[in-house]
Design goal:
Elements: H1 2-19, H2 27-46, H3 51-75, H4 82-102, H5 106-131, H6 136-161, H7 173-210, H8 220-237, E1 241-248, H9 251-277, E2 283-288, E3 291-296, H10 301-316, E4 327-334, H11 341-357, E5 363-365, H12 379-388
Parallel strand pairs: 4-5
Antiparallel strand pairs: 1-3, 1-4, 2-3
Helix pairs in contact: 1-2, 1-7, 2-3, 3-4, 3-5, 4-5, 5-6, 6-7, 9-10, 11-12
Pfam families: GGDEF (PF00990)
EC number: 2.7.7.65
Catalytic activity: 2 GTP = 3',3'-c-di-GMP + 2 diphosphate
Length: 389
């Protein structure tokens, strides 16, 4: 039943490989590993008195366990240990062949295979502990790997140090317990790997829901979530924040001249330039079309203007192989924690339109406002009126 379940789990893993995002790697290797383990059990069941089939069964199952390690390494974006994989199964072939035909010793064969399999599991445990995130799924997966490795090495130690019956074809108590536990743990390790894969899928989906797919910076939703956190911090600490509203100048002309593909490259370049010009604590978002926002936490007007000028300077530099462009910027400083995000956005937007009206390729500073605006009016018309005032 455990073997049949392993075969079913291989189908589940391969289906996940086909349907999960490509960033989640290792599923196909784990699916292939289970197929090999099932095949190894089948060969072992049919081997009878054939030492060749016995050797083949051990090699095939070692391939399966090795692919579990390879899949785990791929999942954590590490270089697969193919050298260790090949060394392990070749040692199985040489060691088992020697102690099968030249100097027959069942205990030595068990010890050799146990040590080699333990090395594969130990490598996987090291990778999980070093690269896994601090989460229940990682602890669950690593614990299952640890239990399986302890089972394997215990059998190897008992084979050499006692008269315990470690022959899995026998009727001893240890053989029964080992078979049940080992087969169960193989299935549970697969469940553990699916758990960390599901966790990775959750993180990816959350990230995609808050990132702009073109520029890979925050989108509206991501910006709103970040602003809520920074605003709560601002209220607790009594600090200030500054918002920059950045709009690409003459973007329609860029699209008409270079096509939408060229326009997309401009947007990607603008996002990259802004991200490199700001601090690591600042947040950059694409708010729609050619409009970008930069939130500067714990930043007053004077340091915010330094960052604004740095962005303007960076944008004016020529970019080989990419259409050049400039930006108009509106700067709005929030000192009142009771001011709403909508009001802050409107003030920054009005200042940006003033920069447009005053010649583009520049920035304007929004005046402080202590009252909520009347919604439903044209922001552009209000901004033009304010510029004239």
């Amino acid at each position: 039943m455990a073997t049949l379940m392993a075969g079913a789990m291989s189908v589940v893993l391969y289906s996940a490989h086909l349907n999960f995002p490509k960033e989640i790697k290792g599923l196909r290797d784990w699916a292939a590993a289970l197929v090999l383990l099932v095949a190894g059990v089948g060969i072992f069941a049919l081997h009878g008195n054939s030492n060749i089939l016995l050797l083949a069964a051990n090699v095939v199952m070692t391939w399966g366990l090795g692919l579990m390690l390879i899949g785990t390494e791929k999942f954590y974006r590490l270089r697969p240990s193919w050298r260790l994989f090949h060394i392990t199964w070749l040692c199985i072939v040489i060691g088992l062949a020697y102690w099968l035909w030249i100097k027959p010793s069942f205990a030595t064969r068990v010890a050799i295979s146990s040590v080699l399999v333990f090395i594969l599991h130990a490598r996987a445990i090291y990778i999980i502990c070093k690269n896994g995130e601090r989460h229940f799924s990682t602890g669950f997966f690593g614990s299952l790997m640890l239990i399986e490795s302890l089972l394997v090495i215990t059998r190897g130690i008992l084979a050499l140090s006692s008269d315990a019956d470690v022959n899995l074809m026998g009727a001893g108590r240890f053989a029964s317990l080992y078979l049940a536990a080992a087969q169960f743990m193989t299935l549970m390790m697969t469940v553990g790997f699916m758990t960390v894969c599901t966790r990775r899928l959750q993180i990816l989906l959350e990230r995609r829901s808050t990132l702009d797919p073109l520029t890979q910076i925050l989108n509206r939703r991501g910006f709103a979530e970040i602003y809520a956190k920074e605003h709560a911090m601002m209220r607790r600490q009594g600090s200030t924040m500054t918002l920059l509203n950045i709009d690409v100048d003459h973007f329609k002309k860029i699209n008409d001249t270079y096509g939408h593909a060229g326009g997309d490259q401009v947007l990607i370049g603008v996002a990259d330039t802004i991200a490199k010009a700001v601090r690591i604590s600042d947040h950059v978002a694409r708010f729609g079309g050619e409009e970008f926002l930069v939130l500067l936490p714990d930043t007053g007007l004077a340091p915010a203007l330094q960052i604004t000028e740095r962005i303007q300077t960076a944008m004016r530099k020529p970019r080989p192989g990419r259409p050049g462009c400039t930006v108009s910027m509106g700067v709005a400083c929030q000192t009142d924690p009771d001011e709403s995000l909508d009001r802050l956005l409107i003030r920054a937007d009005q200042a940006m339109y003033c920069a447009k009206q005053n010649g583009r390729n520049r920035y304007e500073i929004a005046p402080q406002s202590g009252s909520e605006p009347t919604f439903g009016h044209s922001i552009e018309r209000d901004a033009m009126s304010e510029c004239r005032l």
